[in-house]
């Protein structure tokens, strides 16, 4: 019933945007508009999660989750069909989240203070390698799946169905709701972990929520841009917000805007006439990364302009220095 309601809502939105400039191509066919809607939702959720990833310095955890969740996607595709990849990813995602959270808390309080919040990077690397290896082995469980292995890694954006879109949207909603409920504490912990602990903040809960949000975005993006390319939604928007913004709120606005605009540009580039087919997932991922480099250039230019203005500004000598002279 929920899937039918979401399908009707997407169809109404497609008809509404069919006459709006810039959306005619994307809204002309449902197989183009459905992934676009998914990318918008993924851009919002991924943008917010990427801010937390950046503030908490969880880039390695995000990278590990992206690779470690791969066996769940493969298991769903091999044993239950392509429509079950999100369900398989959820099962493995629970295990990955628990393993990463435990890895951050397995040390004693003294060793944790000495090593920092990131915990054991060696343990995180073991989680990444072991889970991803299981996925590769499972991919060969029923004959040679090398042809489908690439699709599972890099997604099938134009093959997103109503059910998979509903599952991905639900995962994004879970990530956003969890972060909304703990947002102030997440930011507090990011800037002053010791102070937050002294203030009575449940550190285990905060770390668990952050890892669950990361996993939810990976699950949502696995059926669209794929497990390997979804890392762009988890790291790049937050990094871009950090470059351009002066506050956490500004980081969030820039990161969310970048995720949404990056998805739109990728969908537009995908439909450009070319002698060779353009990968939809690759176009989206490159668009997000491209915006990052544009932001980097803008930041450098602004810094150069400020330096030039400061040099041209007349030096005002103080009265004391004039009397001494």
* Annotated CATH topology: ABC transporter involved in vitamin B12 uptake, BtuC
Kindly state the percentage of residues in helix.
over 70%
Averaged pLDDT: 83
Going by CATH, the architecture would be Orthogonal Bundle
**Number of helical elements:** 15
Largest sheet: none
Question: How many domains make up the coordinates?
Answer: 1
Structural class: mainly alpha
User: Would you state the CATH class?
Assistant: Mainly Alpha
Order of helices and strands: HHHHHHHHHHHHHHH
Distance between the termini: 85 Å
| Relative strand content | under 5%
Topology, please?
Blueprint: H1 2-17, H2 30-56, H3 59-68, H4 70-80, H5 85-105, H6 109-115, H7 121-139, H8 146-154, H9 162-191, H10 193-198, H11 203-222, H12 231-244, H13 248-270, H14 280-312, H15 319-324
Helix pairs in contact: 2-9, 2-11, 2-12, 2-13, 3-7, 3-11, 4-5, 4-7, 5-7, 5-11, 9-11, 12-13, 12-14, 13-14
């Amino acid at each position: 019933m929920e899937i039918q309601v979401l399908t009707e809502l997407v169809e109404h939105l497609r008809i509404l945007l069919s006459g709006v400039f810039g959306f005619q191509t994307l809204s002309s066919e449902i197989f183009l508009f459905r992934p676009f809607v998914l990318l918008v939702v993924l851009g919002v959720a991924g943008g917010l999660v990427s801010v937390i990833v950046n503030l908490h310095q969880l880039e390695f955890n995000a990278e590990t989750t992206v690779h470690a969740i791969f066996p769940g996607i493969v298991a769903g595709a091999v044993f239950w069909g392509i429509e079950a990849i999100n369900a398989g990813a959820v099962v493995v995602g629970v295990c990955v989240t628990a393993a990463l959270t435990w890895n951050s808390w397995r040390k004693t309080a003294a060793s944790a203070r000495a090593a920092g919040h990131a915990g054991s990077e060696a343990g995180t690397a073991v989680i990444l390698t072991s889970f991803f290896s299981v996925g590769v082995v499972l991919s060969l469980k029923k004959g040679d799946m090398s042809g489908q292995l690439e699709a599972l890694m890099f997604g099938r954006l134009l093959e997103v169905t109503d059910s998979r879109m509903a599952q991905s949207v639900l995962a994004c909603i879970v990530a956003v709701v969890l972060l909304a409920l703990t947002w102030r504490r997440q930011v507090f912990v990011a800037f002053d972990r010791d102070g937050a602990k002294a203030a009575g903040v449940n550190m285990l809960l905060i770390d668990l929520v952050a890892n669950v949000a990361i996993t939810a975005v990976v699950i949502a993006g696995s059926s669209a841009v794929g497990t390997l390319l979804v890392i762009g939604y988890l790291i790049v928007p937050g990094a871009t917000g950090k470059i351009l913004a002066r506050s956490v709120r500004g980081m969030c606005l820039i990161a969310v805007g970048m995720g949404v605009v990056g998805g739109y540009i990728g969908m537009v580039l995908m439909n450009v006439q070319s002698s060779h087919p353009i990968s939809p997932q690759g176009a989206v991922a490159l668009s997000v990364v491209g915006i990052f480099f544009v932001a980097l250039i803008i930041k450098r230019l602004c810094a150069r302009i400020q330096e030039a203005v400061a040099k041209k500004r007349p030096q005002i000598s103080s009265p004391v220095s004039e009397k001494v002279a």
